[in-house]
């Protein structure tokens, strides 16, 4: 059987081989720990910045935050005054834990729960955004914080 130019290009030394070597290099350079760090920092920023819009000073809820939960969010299972506090404090605590890489899986699980509530009860049309958040959070729940985390230093899985 005779080899064609396409077959030669796809052999180990050709295009396929070059692509596979590049993929192997990317896998070595961009391992779990780097991915986990990027996931932790990116999702932490989203939630922390959202939390900052709800408070003034350190953690004093703005009057508008109560109105937001009462008039716009309208979460049916929790009174708005309680939901406002839970959300504001959670959007500060869990991102901080993610940045530190401390109790990463639990913090990610808590934020996934918040994401689910936001998706189901508040902004169901924003599912593409919430799905991308869920992807980052599920990765951390499944794989943990990586070596660049306090979890790793403390031996916490």
Automatic annotation (TrEMBL):
Major subcellular location class: membrane
Record flagged with keyword Kinase: no
InterPro entries: DoxX, DoxX-like_oxidoreductase
Membrane topology type: Multi-pass membrane protein
Keywords noted in UniProt: Cell membrane, Membrane, Transmembrane, Transmembrane helix
Transmembrane recorded as keyword: yes
Transmembrane segments: 29-49, 93-118, 130-150
Matching Pfam families: DoxX (PF07681)
Subcellular location: Cell membrane
A GO CC term attached to the entry: plasma membrane
Protein family (similarity comment): Belongs to the DoxX family.
Record protein name field: DoxX family protein
Source organism of this protein record: Trinickia symbiotica
